[in-house]
Amino acid sequence: MLKKQYRLRKKSAFNATYRVNRSCHVQGVTLFMGLPKKEDYPTRVGFVVSKKTHKRAVRRNRVKRLMREAYRLLLKSNLAPQKYISLIFVGGSQSLDKNFEQMQNIVKELLEKC
Predict the structure, then answer these.
(1) How far apart are CA 102 and CA 93, in angstroms?
(2) Number of H helices and number of E strands within the chain?
(3) pLDDT tens per residue across span 87-108
(4) Which range marks the domain in which residue 42 is found?
(5) How many domains does the chain fold into?
(6) Are strands 22-26 and 44-49 parallel, antiparallel or unpaired?
(7) Burial (CB count <10 Å: 0-12, 13-18, 19+), residue 111
(8) In terms of pTM, does the model score above 0.85?
(9) Tens of pLDDT along 18-33?
(10) Tell me, what CATH number does 74's domain have?
(11) Strand order in 22-26's β-sheet?
(12) Structural contact between residues 28 and 94, judged by C-beta atoms closer than 8 angstroms
């Protein structure tokens, strides 16, 4: 689990990140990026899977867990770029059938691409 200092929690923070309107999409996962970083605070990250993606909460939570763990491992190995104030990973319907290795590659590709 990500430490509290790295989590995006407030609705206003999510809305501010969406409002910047910078995004990338790879294999069913979309990454929304906030403003470029000016201060030395850690990048905050949020993970979202819509109810429209799948009606079962178990399936939605599994996708969020996979994305969260993939990002946590990248953060631990210092491979996650820390150039944005906030990031939001949004899982789509294509991401429901991905395993951990595939999700890890997707998250890594998104962070390198954007």
Answers:
(1) 15
(2) 3, 4
(3) 999 999 999 999 999 999 999 9
(4) 4-113
(5) 1
(6) unpaired
(7) buried
(8) yes
(9) 999 899 999 999 999 9
(10) 3.30.230.10
(11) 22-26, 29-33, 86-91, 44-49
(12) yes
